[in-house]
């Protein structure tokens, strides 16, 4: 077994998690959550999404969030990124001082149509001017690929299709490509075969794992891909999240559970687990929902 010595956590709970909450979360609470996450040692937090409030009302305060973080970011060691699916969103993000953005595609034609109303090829073509403008502005771009181990509409997805989309995003200029098991149907064998295909097109050093835990397999799958060289993991505090276009999908794997796994393997993440668990408990109470992290629940029961 050859695990990485260090793993970088990309905390996606603020964006990928909160965007699915049915009750509006005010800006002050979001900023408080972001600050608590940063104080726990997380150094990459996806904080907002520059999309139309009509489609994602929970992200309507993206300007206020990113402008506040831009001021703090000058003294912070934490990277605060934002999702910018089109040129209009990118320009708005640049006005707010964002230094890193993300674009997202899918490995499933049906999911792409349901999510962003266009084909995979059309979605990638739309990203071209976004990539060009971002790189021109000196802003790094991260790419997401959804449905890498299963689609709610098509079922099984070919690893070769995932590899093709990942290659396109990488060739466009994405410094990193995050592989998303959007509906959480992946298993260790699927994850291994997925990486075998994708790493023929994009080096493992430029890949990240973004696994949802719908079927309780996320940690097992992460263990498998870390053995294969993955050293970047997307996760969500308290397991916040889901997917509005994938009925029944649960949130991303809980950050607390990932950190506990990493500590058990002797892998450094730079995150204070106890402090993170308190943050997960806090935001769960703020939202009036159960804490989705088993580790968080266990630790808070001891405090």
From TrEMBL:
SUPFAM superfamilies, from UniProt? Answer: Aldolase (SSF51569)
Catalytic activity of the protein: (3S)-3-hydroxy-3-methylglutaryl-CoA = acetoacetate + acetyl-CoA
Q: Which CDD domains match?
A: DRE_TIM_HMGL
Keyword list (alphabetical) reads: Lyase, Metal-binding
Per the record, the GO terms for biological process are: ketone body biosynthetic process; L-leucine catabolic process
Q: Which residues form the Pyruvate carboxyltransferase domain?
A: 7-277
Q: Which family does it belong to?
A: Belongs to the HMG-CoA lyase family.
Query: What is this protein called in UniProt?
Result: hydroxymethylglutaryl-CoA lyase
Q: Which organism is it from?
A: Cobetia crustatorum
